[in-house]
Amino acid sequence: MSAAAAEGPLLQVKGLQVRYFTERGTIEASRGVTLHLDRGETLGLVGESGSGKSVTSQAILGLIREPGRIVAGDIVWKGRSLLAADGAAYARRVRGKEIALVFQDPMTSLNPVFTIGLQITEVLRHHLKLGRRAASDRAAELLDLVGISAPRQRLAQYPHELSGGMRQRALIAMALSCEPELLVADEPTTALDVTIQAQILELLGSLQQRLGLSILLITHDLGVVAALCHRVAVIYAGRIVETGRAADLFARPAHPYTMGLLRSTPRIDVVRPRLVAIDGTPPDLSHPPAGCAFHTRCPIATDACMAEAPSLVPQAGGRTVACWRAFTPAWPGEAANRRARG
């Protein structure tokens, strides 16, 4: 066993429940999310819009605000709770310094009335207590690290003066400013065109190798997952339904929802006459359905699926699956497709 493995996971999310108390009722945005992230790995958190991906990242960073509230569960960083009543000072010290966040839209995440330099140096001066000149020098180094040309000149520019790709690189530089151990990337390529997306993904992979980062990558794009992630956690209706190594999950998905996501995603190694969408829509989490939340859209649901929600059950090869019919082909021809893939 490696030293990193012996020390235990870097981050653990245990039974996280987040609710939003609104005028139209209580919305159960996260309904018992459980996952872990090891040192030096990239974990992809995958699901449709509204599945609870961003809520999970916001809870980790302490960004849940009224009318939202964490009502149960725990978030453990290096073996110590970030939610414990006596851990508030520890959580403030960790968040932003040891755990950093890259938002999905740099144009709305960067303040338009302050220069790029001022926004990066603010982080350095707050967390590292650097002086004005030292913070400016460090900010220029960070912009150079993420591949921005003429970094000194860019420090004096405003967000609207940079391209979308450069703004995203500036956000990554800001997140890396305190040399974090975990980078939470919330849909970091959503607002970018395909060419720039590839550049940002390549940058994240390069930075991980050079700096020894762990990355929690939140996305709905399975192509991004295939390019960057070691492991994947699939989330649906506020619950994790499947986890496993990325290669294993792509080769043999166990949960019908994961199968549906893969069937609706273009692939170059499998020839299909057409992509197949998942029927129906995600459930309303102000009134989540009984049993497995996916049963209203699942082609192989049984009475057991409607009566009781399955728990995450360990499988061979480090997989976990929350399904009464795990590994059962969900669509006609799925078994034949798997045999064709070898």
UniProtKB/TrEMBL annotation:
Superkingdom as given in the UniProt entry: Bacteria
Compartment(s) of residence: Cell inner membrane
Annotated GO CC locations: plasma membrane
Gene3D superfamilies on file: P-loop containing nucleotide triphosphate hydrolases
A molecular-function term among this protein's GO annotations: ATP binding
InterPro entries: AAA+_ATPase, ABC_Ni/Peptide_Import, ABC_transporter-like_ATP-bd, ABC_transporter-like_CS, Oligopep_ABC_C, P-loop_NTPase
SUPFAM superfamilies attached to this UniProt entry: P-loop containing nucleoside triphosphate hydrolases (SSF52540)
One GO-annotated biological process of the protein: peptide transport
Membrane topology classification: Peripheral membrane protein
Boundaries of every ABC transporter domain copy: 11-262
Keyword NAD found: no
Lineage summary: Bacteria, Pseudomonadati, Pseudomonadota, Alphaproteobacteria, Hyphomicrobiales
Chief site of localization: membrane
Annotated protein name in UniProt: ABC transporter ATP-binding protein
Family: Belongs to the ABC transporter superfamily.
